[in-house]
Specification:
- The chain is an all-alpha fold.
- 79% of the residues lie in helices and 0% in strands.
- The protein has helices spanning 8-14, 16-24, 29-49, 52-79, 85-104, 112-130.
Length: 132
């Protein structure tokens, strides 16, 4: 494993207490996927509408939430035996929607062509990683 993916097992271990709590409360993995998308939308809104220095903290907190939920949804599904093709599809759609929402938050700050190129790049990289 290279890059940030090498940290994934370490990070998943840090979230194991939350995962157990969600499992004990029978939280649906789909709810966690949706929560991640909501965090991404909030980060995008903060990025787009708040002045730059004050936006940093809410954007960072919301993106940290997005990362946690992105890690927790699939892990919770596996831990609780609730993996389904529908859930896997919802997870992927949620991940792409979250990525695109965050990039859209840059629309007031960057030229449209650059935001569009970033949106294309993030979806192209996502698709190519699946073929590895």
């Amino acid at each position: 494993m290279n890059g940030l993916y090498a940290l994934k097992p370490w990070y998943a271990d840090r979230l194991s207490g939350l995962r157990r709590a969600f499992a004990a409360r029978q939280v649906s993995p789909d709810i966690l996927t949706a929560a991640g998308v909501v965090c991404a939308a909030g980060a995008a809104a903060a990025l787009a509408w708040l002045p730059t220095p004050p936006a940093a903290l809410p954007v960072a907190v919301l993106l940290a939430g997005r990362l946690a939920f992105a890690n927790l949804d699939g892990a919770l599904a596996r831990d609780t035996g609730r993996t389904t093709r529908r859930g896997a599809l919802l997870n992927e759609l949620g991940d792409r929607a979250a990525d695109l929402l965050v990039i859209a938050g840059f629309l007031p700050l960057a030229p449209l062509w650059l935001v569009a190129a970033a949106a294309f790049a993030v979806t192209a990289v996502s698709d190519s990683r699946k073929s590895e």
